Amino acid sequence: MKERKLPLLPQAFELIKSGRKKIEGRAPDIDIPAKNYKHMNRDDILVFIKEDETNEIIKYTISDINHYSSVEEMLKYENIKIVSPLENDSEKIITKYHSFP
């Protein structure tokens, strides 16, 4: 079991903290070590860091994990409402995921 630090924009942080967002997805890129999420496993601890002046932290244990080759594949198998509770349009979600550095 390892701790994995993940920065989150304030809106996503608050959605996870409130329980409305139950799945945290990341667009993978195996050529960039920081974006290769295959090393994450069940029982690892995610340390979410709110990207604002507070740097508030919340911790969650990974209870289930699925590794998808793309955001598009993830959206085929996961409930869109718990992946992105504020957006119903899968194309907008895909664009948003790929906009993060």
How is this fold's topology laid out?
Layout: E1 3-8, H1 10-18, E2 45-50, E3 57-61, H2 71-77, H3 80-83, H4 90-99
Parallel strand pairs: 1-2
Antiparallel strand pairs: 2-3
The CATH topology annotation reads as Archaeosine Trna-guanine Transglycosylase, Chain: A, domain 4
Query: What spatial order of strands do you see in the largest sheet?
Result: 1-2-3
Major sheet characteristics: 3 strands, mixed
Q: Spans of 5+ residues with little confidence (pLDDT < 50)?
A: none
Helical proportion, percent range: 25-40%
From N to C, what is the helix and strand string?
A: EHEEHHH
Give the name of the CATH architecture.
Roll
Return the CATH class: Mainly Beta
**What is the β-strand count?**
3
What report would you give on this structure?
The structure is a single chain. This protein is an alpha+beta fold and 101 residues long. The protein has a single domain (3-99), classed as Archaeosine Trna-guanine Transglycosylase, Chain: A, domain 4. It is 30% helix and 17% strand. It has helices spanning 10-18, 71-77, 80-83, 90-99; strands at residues 3-8, 45-50, 57-61. The protein has a three-stranded mixed beta sheet with strand order 1-2-3. The protein is globular, with a radius of gyration of 13 Å.
